[in-house]
Every structure is written in structure tokens, then in C-alpha cells.
Amino acid sequence: MELKITNSLGRKKEIFKPIEDKKVKLYVCGVTPYDYSHLGHGRAYVNFDVFVRLLKFLGYNVNYVRNITDIDDKLINKAIKEGDLNNYKKIAEKFTKFYHEDMQALNCLSPDIEPKATEHIKQMIDFIKQLIENKNAYVIDHDVYFDVSSFGPYGKLSGKKLEDLQAGARVGIDERKKNPADFALWKGNDKELFWKSPWGHGRPGWHIECSVMAKEYFGETLDVHGGGADLTFPHHENEIAQSESLHNKPFANYWMHNAFLNINKEKMSKSLGNFFTLKQVFENFDPMVLRFYFLQHHYRSPIELNFDDLKASQTAYERLINSLKIDTQTKDLENISLQDLLKHSFMPEIMKSLCDDINTPKALGIIFKNIDKIKESKDLILVTRYFLKHVLGLTLEAITKEVKITKEIEDLVKEREKARADKNWALADKIRDQLNDMGYVAHDKKLKS
Question: How many separate helices (H) and strands (E) can be counted in the chain?
Fold first, then answer.
């Protein structure tokens, strides 16, 4: 069955053709483990987990690499804030462990390789040295910068023009740089911190890490590079510039990006006070409900999150589980082939939807449309369960977790509604933040005039 995906490079849907027949080199940007994983992480890795599962079911041999950025500004700043710069390693280890727990709860397959940035410092230094030799990078004191003007196609992924980036550069930009858009490959210091390099002690910049790790495991060109839409610029744009400047060939043939997860029409972020961790959500909803909720949305469509929608997803998911119950003596089909799946009723339509740019909401819609027909046939129940479990990654186990709406929460909501009605915005915002800290989303409706 022909697989089509939307390539962010060119912004159009294309037939997927890997470099080697039936072998896929997939690199997905992983987390910087300085805090608990949030809903945006959950959405991204569930989306790519389905992509991996689909590729495998279609007969591809997938080599899935997802990195850990265990040295970065955010980690260092957190360590400094906690009083010990060297503590960044322990912080990274701590939150990597929690991240793995969250991915397991969401039933995401582990990547084949999960490289850490700190394990590839030598390769990064060598990569940077070659960029300097090629005149794509330059040294200032202990720092090394990539010269964006040396790479003609800069901006081809994001659509941003170099002249616009230069004109829009903020006041206070490092005046030492040749161009305001030049970015750090190596962040040096004179205190002998981190790793020794030809330019003195220092550490790698964020962008060089992924270029190097992708090269380490896939060579100069990979099939698919993925991540959240927020990584398109500058991270992925800069990866392209570094890698293609050095190798003079495409870095990745396909780029896939999942859309933002918004709350109250704003991208989820800590600075806006609308930041929710996966663990907070898991306190109130089964992880499979959250996975199901993500799959009800196309990966390229923004999600406007509120807890009412999650409750509705729980109801729909429970209906699905109950509709697909089978005799306890009957086990799910094992090792069903694509050809076997396509023999059954509406399954070709479902697979066609999924192979059309991973359209999970359409595939689920077809199942719900035919749910009564499925319930009448044990064969259809088995095939549908197999598809949902092995391709979409839903466990279909009974949900035991109930949404916790305690009297305390109800009272806070009522108090906030009164504050909004009285136009006491300060109090309303304070209660909203309190609800946020407790793992609840305050979803505002328009006030009556």
C-alpha cells in the first residue's frame, strides 16, 4: 500500500520512498531533560510512535533514533539556580527517568537508539573543525559561530529570508558576530568548564548536537527527520545549514512536524502560566485516554486543549473498549499481515486513511461509524482490536482511573466564576494558577454582558 506523508520541506504531500528499499532511517528530536515532560512532548512522541508502528506494519525495517539533549542552557540554568553548576548531570538523569516513565505510560515504543549529547562531544568538535576549515564557521575568543551567509539556501525549510532575520534582529545582539543570525556551534569559557577543545574549554551549541548524532547513526543523509513545529526554526533550519554545508548533499529527504498544542488559543508554555506536565494529566486521566485524544486529531492540526474534550475522549474510548470485548478464552490475533487485514470489510478504507499522511482521526471515525457491524462479528472484533493495539498503540484495557473533581475544586471554580463576573481579574488569574498547579485547566467561556 502506497504511503504518503507531508514533507515540511516544500510543504506538500509526497509519496514516501526511502533511500534503501524497505529500510527507514528516522531521527526524531528528543527532550532536554531539565523538567517533567509536558503535553506537547506527549503529543509529538505519540504521533511519531504511530508513524513507526505503521512503517513496521507495512513491512519497513525501521531504525528509530531519538536523542537526549543532556547538555544545554536550560539544564545549566536550572543547576545554577539550585546552587551547583555540576548538578546538571544529576538533573538530566532524574528527568530522563521520568520522561521514560511517561513514554511507557503512553505505550510509546522505545527508540532503537537513544543517544545522549554528552556521549558525542569528540564527534561534535571534529564536525565543528571541518566547518571552520570549509569557511562555514569562524572563531571569536573561545566561541565558534556558524556563518549563515555561507549557506545560500538558508531558510528553505522555514521559509524565512536571511535579510528579514538580519533586519529583525533584536537590539543587544552579540556585536562580535558577522551576521545577527549567526548561531553558536561552540560556547566557550575561560574557566576550564565542561570539555576541552581547540578553542578552549566549553560545550556544544544546541543545533550541532542533533546534526552530529544523526550523522553518527545514519551517515550523511537520513530518510525522515521529525519533531514539533516549534523546532522548524531555528533548530531544524540550523541543522540543515550545518550538515549540508559540510556534506554538500541533503541532510534529510523528508521533514515531518506535528502542530502545536494550544491552551486558550495560546501555545502552551511556562511563561504564559498554561503549562501542564504529563504526570499532572495522568493524575486525572488514564494515559490511554490522552493517547486516544491525540489520535483524534491529525498530527498537523493544532489542538485547542481543554479538560471537557478529554472527558469526551474518555467516554468515546470507553465505548470503544466495551464494543470490542471478546470471550476471555479468545486471544487477539498474533502476527496478522497487511494482506490479512485488508481482507476484512472496511479495513482497506482504514489503512488507506492511515497511509494518507497518517490520518488517524479519519481511521478512528471509520471504526466508530461501523461499530455496530464490528460487534456482530468476532472476526471483525479481533481484526479491529489488532489494528488499534498494534498500529495505533491503544492497549484497550479497562479504565479504572476516574476524573477527580473534588469539592475543593468545585468551590475554587465557583469562586473564580464569581471573580470573573465581578471583573476581579487579579483574583480570577490567581485561582486559575492555583487550579493549574493542581493539574486542572480553567476553560473560560464568554461572559454574558
Answer: 17, 13
Total residue length of the chain: 449
Chain segment 86-132, per-residue pLDDT in tens: 899 999 999 999 999 999 999 999 999 999 999 999 999 999 999 99
| The pLDDT value given to residue 15 | 98
Cell readout for 410 is 468545585
Single-letter amino acid, residue 18: P
The answer to whether 65 and 26 are in contact (CB under 8 A) is: yes
* 3-class secondary structure, 114: coil
Cβ atoms 216, 115 nearer than 8 A:
yes
**What DSSP string runs through 138-180?**
EEETTEEEE-GGG-TTTTTTT---HHHHHHTPPTT--TTSSST
Going by C-alpha positions, the residue among 64, 94, 54 that lies closest to residue 341 is 54
- Alpha-carbon torsion, ordered 146, 148, 150, 156, to 10 deg: 130
Q: 86: burial class by Cβ within 10 Å (0-12, 13-18, 19+)?
A: exposed
pLDDT (average), residues 16-21? 98
Tell me the pTM.
Answer: 0.87
Separation of alpha carbons 33 and 401, rounded Å = 27
> From CA 19, how far away is CA 221, in angstroms rounded?
9
Domain extents in the chain: 4-261, 284-391, 405-449
In terms of Cα–Cα distance, which of 115, 114, 94, 102 is closest to 38? 102
pLDDT band, residue 171 (cuts 50/70/90) = very low
Task: Find the DSSP H helices in 134-277.
Answer: 162-167, 206-218, 237-247
Instruction: Identify the CA nearest to 148 among candidates 185, 112, 119, 122.
Output: 185
Higher pLDDT, 328 or 241: 241
What average pLDDT score do residues 170-186 get? 81
Class of domain 4-261: alpha beta
Q: Which long-range contacts (CB under 8 A, 24 or more apart) does 125-129 make?
A: 125/186, 125/195, 125/197, 125/198, 127/208, 127/211, 127/212, 127/215, 127/242, 127/246, 128/185, 128/186, 128/197, 128/204, 128/208, 129/198
